[in-house]
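Posting this for the archive.
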Amino acid sequence: MQLLRKRRTFVCMQTTSGGLKQLVSHNCHPHVPSEFDHLDFSMKAQVKANITTIRKIGEAVRDYSDELPFDVESTQWLRSPQILHWVSGNGDGFEANRRVVEEWGPAASKDLGMDQVATLGVVEVGDNVSDRRFLLETFGMFALEGIDGGSMPGRSLRIDIKKEFDPKYFMPYVPGYLVYGQGDLALFTIRAAPEDARMTVPSDGAGQASMLCDELVKVLHGLGGSFDDVIVGWARVPFLNEDEEAVLMTRSKKGLQRPLAESVLGLAASDQLGNAHDGAPWRLEYVIVAQIRPDDA
């Protein structure tokens, strides 16, 4: 686990299963592939859709100006997103898909006024959630330079694209969170049980997802927080075809209703989780970022 001293106000966001999904107002869980049949699944279209969605989420911060204790009218920070791409090996293969991302990502960013984009990495994954035709997941973050929220109580404000958001539909993920104020960030990975605990681990995805949720709540409690402090969740799922529904649905079934800036990532063959001490294959690992507030905040 790493505790990161937060020195800036920032927005964390996720364009999940391609910004193309933003073109479908709401989709079912478990997913129904026919809902996406009308989309352009070319790699170039997916890159452009993701970058466009990152810009839209950043612009949506201004819609929450009445809820913020500082001014967000100056949006120079929108020029400088930090971006991480997860690129599937499906379609034409990872190398071909990666070349499209590296060619069109910076160009699409510049066209949208994000001319100081920083690409943190391009990582190979296997299948993507929802529909295997989605070939790209993108994490984005803006640091709101010039805004000092350090003396304020720590808070994470949910950011929706209001003109597209319909509150009657529950979704387990959210476009982004604006994070500011006092407190650190805890960054850690978690599975159904600690590696050194030598506990019996369920061999099925649903069992491990349920056990992981319990372990996560316990870890957060030990940090003085709760699930309501989680901002980002990246689910690493080696058997996505078998475990997608369990990963998507278990959390809310257990009463953990806070939506996350989340990605559900099928793993590449070269990036597997291995087995627990009792031989059961690890079926799920989460990378978690949570805001940890000081006791007096």
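The longest helix spans residues 43-60. The two ends are 22 Å apart (CA to CA).
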